[in-house]
Amino acid sequence: MQKIDNSVPYRLIYSLGEHPYLGYLIEPHIVQLNSNGSDSLSYKRVFTNTVDEFKSALDEDDYKIIKLLDEIEQTHVIKRFHKKAIRPMDYFSKVFDQKLYGYIRPKLDQKMLKALELIGNKPLFLMSKKDGYPADQILKIADQPTSILFHFRRNEEETRYFPTLKYNGHRMEFMFKNAEVIINQQAWLLLENTLYHFDQPLEGKKLSPFLNKRYIAVGRTTERKYFETFVTGLIEKHNVYAEGFDIKTIKEDAIPVLTLNYVEEGESHLKLSFTYGDYSFSAGGEHKVSVRMLYESKEDLYTFIRIKRSVSWEEKQREILHVLGLKKLDALFGSYITDHGKSIFSWLNENQNDLLEKGFIIQQETGEKSFFIGKTSLDIEVGEDNDWFDVRAFANFGPYKIPFIQLRDHILNRIQEFELPNGEIAILPEEWFAQYEHLFHFSVKKDMLQFNKAHIGLLHEISEHTALTMSRKLQHLSNFEKIIAIDPPLHFNGQLRPYQQAGYNWFHFLQEFKFGGVLADDMGLGKTVQTLAFLQKQKEDFKSTDHAKTSLLILPTSLVYNWQKEADRFAPKLRILLHTGSNRFKDPYAFSHFDLVITTYGIVRSDEAILGKFFFNYIILDESQNIKNPTSKSFKSIKTLKSKNKLALSGTPVENSVSDIWSQMHFTNPGLLGSYAFFQKEFVVPIEKKKDEEKAQRLQAIIKPFVLRRTKNQVATELPPKTEQIIYCEMTEKQSDMYETTKSEYRNALLDGIVQQNGKTSQITLLQGLTRLRQLANHPKMVDENFDENSGKFQAVLEMLESISSEQNKVLIFSQFVKHLQLFKAHFDKQKIKYAYLDGATKDRADAVQNFKANKDTKVFLISIKAGGVGLNLTEADYVFILDPWWNPAVEQQAIDRTHRIGQTQNVFIYKFISKDTVEEKIVALQNRKKSIATALITTEESFVKSLSPDDLKELLR
User: PROSITE patterns per the record (predicted)?
Assistant: First the structure.
């Protein structure tokens, strides 16, 4: 090797040489050219990192070839297969052996094959064995492939075996010609300076024995084993000519066969095979040709049956299974399982007809059990009586029609194997356990499928999975979303919005079919109005033949007077009895003189015996989440009451847990959700602990006809931009006593002062007295820190906050008393409820506002009117609570405008909390009377108080 002068002409050549240990390899060399253009004796071995100085002699393919040849050069091979640094001589003399050669050479062969493919017509030489000169003898790559035919000649003594080669239509002599196999993996043969390749996959070692040998002889004593292994394999892959035994080629139309392999405690699967005539092959085999050997001992005749397999057709059959939802379990043996966890039996049931139409044969492995693998289906019909449904169901297993009730124990105990009359074992589809288990749980009887009418939701669910047939009346019931419109009552003051009319219609639907229900509209959507309209209609439709006309409304104490006020406004014809206070009726007969009896959860607990003696038309629970605990005294007391119909109203029927709905459903539709223990096990645990979507959907299907819920967003277009409502709160007993005592003291003092001073009483004293009364109306703790009981208003606000927070809405709470806000602040801190806070002492207003706006968990903003009445934009809130009435309505309006302003996309609900029978109630009335003053630009309370006459004062303190 000499230095190459790249200023003088040169060229790149490839040189085939034999490495003493690694076998034939190709090397790239740059050869200096003589002045006449011939190759000189100067050359240089080049690598990827040294060839760039000669790049003028290279094209794109050359770079690829050189990179490949780098990887088969001896130093690269040693580094790849030997971790420690070692000299080549030491590696090959001390480490390298035949085993390593057998591992390394196939990898080198792969690189050689790629290199030869790229070299094509480029200069290729045979390296000199004497001095390693790379351009010794020019080599040519044959321009077309060579074919090979293997010959067998069997006679009475032996079988001779040899190959013949044919190139360009002529037999090629290669034996005893110094030919060499240079690549084994896919044979390349070097003969007389030409490299020959072959038209079929051929290992070089099948040629090597015949380079210097005419044939191989196999004696009679060992021929059978030789035929079974070597000859059979050779016939599968190559063209073979035989004398002394037969080779028969058959080409049959194939049949795809699926064989069921049942595994008792594992995953059953299917095996795919292909039958060609009398021969069957696993789908895992990749050979285009399969060979079977037969031997007739009498005639001493070997016959090889050569079956040509349609590889592309077989692949199409595999693709059919893939499209239908199977995936390979074991590619070698053609085993398949379902792709989505479904059982093989369910898959076969669904796809059997399709498979048979496509020519598949379905069979099973022989064993102790014989399985039914025919079509499985379920037919369900539903008959209707007055109060229950009859479900007539049959399970069809091929020709067998089995009453579904016979599968009761199997379904409830999840036993999949069911023995058919012919002794075959049917595997019940897994979906039957999930879809129909509840039919047996909720069935009234064990020997037949009979259901309470309230379980219409179960029938909705199963109708999605079966060809369920229903009577026309039952079909009407099942389409409960298309409810008949009912005319509003004649004596109803007001106009029901479209969604309220729908709720009113729904109440009638429930009554027609003797169901109870839960109206679960968002707070502010008018559950009270819908119910009052319905109760007024009940009064107007009452017939003397009806057994019951009086309805009972049970609610939290804080809502008693709101209902009374709303009833006076919308349904003044309703005769209402407030069954509250210490002077309430003790004789249940008195209830019959009224259309509606209003009472509280607390009184129901006390008067359970009295109320339990009366049969009501409706029992209606407002804020029905109050009975969510089935072990509570309220729930137990209410369950003893009797009525023709039942309704529940709640903006938050599910507050904390799925289990909250059970007691409300049990009240409205007893038995609908089974026992509480069953409900916990079957629904609560799977839904809450395991996030079981299927169970959640089933529960929804069961309760759907009996729960009507509309959110603010759903009915936004039907709502006015701003809805205001006064919430009247009843003071607690101790709170009321403190208020009356204080009022008497100021009343006497102030009125005496008016008389004595001819009406010119001290404005300061008057303001002090009114302020103290307003504080007591809010919470006595604002006046007396040691007051240890609750306030009616405080409790009412918390109850409404709970409803709003469950709807994920935000609320502004305004008060002109910082002390009042701090009571809520202390409560929120104790309960770990996130809130924002702003009063006159707040240093960082922007931080408080940002906390409320940006933090989705901060749903409450406590604001004092002086600090936050103006200058804030809080459109994130869609509820405003005004905790106390202000003398100046314009100030109230400023507070409301914090949220009801440009940028607000939602409807805003304003709730004003007024303590009943207090100065607050009188301030509201006074505001209405003093409209001229209210509309004026009044900025101080003093200016309003100055305008009050002695009669106004007397009214305030009456």
Answer: HELICASE_ATP_BIND_1, HELICASE_CTER
Q: Let me know whether 656 and 507 are in one domain.
A: yes
In a domain, 635, yes or no: yes
In this structure, the answer to whether residues 636 and 734 fall within a common structural domain is no
Question: How many CA atoms lie less than 13 Å away from 230 in the CB half-sphere?
Answer: 13
Total domains in the chain come to 6
- Mean pLDDT is lowest, of 21-25, 370-374, 653-657, for 653-657
Do 31 and 158 reside in the same domain of the chain? Answer: no
* pLDDT tens digits along 115-150: 999 999 999 999 999 999 999 999 999 999 999 999
Q: Taking phi first (over 0 means left), then psi (-120 to 50 degrees means alpha), and beta for anything else, what does residue 526 get?
A: left
Q: What is the pLDDT of residue 332?
A: 58
What is the per-residue pLDDT for 701? 78
Examine the domain organization and report whether 51 and 199 are in the same domain. Answer: no
What is the Rg, in whole angstroms, of the alpha carbon atoms belonging to the chain?
48
110 to each of 20, 206, 284, how far by Cα in Å?
19, 18, 25
Instruction: For residue 267, count other CB atoms closer than 10 A to its CB.
Output: 13
Per-residue confidence band for 216, with pLDDT thresholds at 50, 70 and 90: very high
**Contact by Cβ (8 Å): 25, 112:** yes
Amino acid identity at 729 = C
Are residue 642 and residue 701 in the same domain, yes or no? yes
What is the value of pTM for the model shown?
Answer: 0.52
Are 561 and 467 members of one domain? no
Task: With a cut of 50, say whether residue 937 has pLDDT above it.
Answer: no
How many CB atoms sit inside 10 A of residue 836's CB?
Answer: 22
pLDDT at 254 over 50: yes
In a domain, 478, yes or no: no
Can you tell me the distance from the alpha carbon of 595 to that of 605, in angstroms, rounded to the nearest whole number? 22
Domain, as residue range, for 424: 372-471
Instruction: Say yes or no: 543 and 644 in one domain.
Output: yes
Q: Is 488 exposed, middle or buried (0-12, 13-18, 19+ CB in 10 A)?
A: middle
